[in-house]
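Format notes (please read before filing issues)

Several people have asked whether sequences and structure tokens are stored in separate files. They are not. Every record keeps both together, in the order shown below: the sequence lines, then the token lines. Line labels are part of the format and must not be stripped during preprocessing.
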Amino acid sequence: MEQFKKSIVKLLKEDARRTPALIATMLGASEEEVAAAIRELEDAGVIVKYATVVNWAKVEEERVTALIEVQITPERGRGFDAIAERIYLYPEVKSVYLMSGSYDLLVEIEGKTLNEVAWFVSNKLSPIERVLSTRTNFTLKKYKQDGIIFENPDEDNRLLISP
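Then the structure lines:
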């Protein structure tokens, strides 16, 4: 990919609300060149979606996020892909990653309650043929996501010491 398009991708990753006009100014290009490059990146599947990062802890809505380590037996001829596809098609599943190490897939899911997540693991994920084992880890607090720090780093949280 040419450097011009890489620069556009980086700028949009930092802030998806940047307009082609602003990006053009930042890169010293014309708005038309930037808009055309963005269309090409979208058509090629490089830019897949424009998303908002939400700090759900500040929204009065209960959410439970779990990271599930899954060990599987790969399928002959398709490896891990067939099982990963079966898993990522569930609407609860937010992300699926093929991993190196002691487990094969890392599955991120969201539910409204711990019981909802437990039900997903026991009734949808574990019964899949070729799933050997699962280990569920619940997210207690998010400090940073996609490069965004949720806590105010400027706050001084040191304890006062008096003489």
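For reference, the curators noted about this record: The chain has a mean pLDDT of 90. DSSP finds five helices and six strands in the chain.
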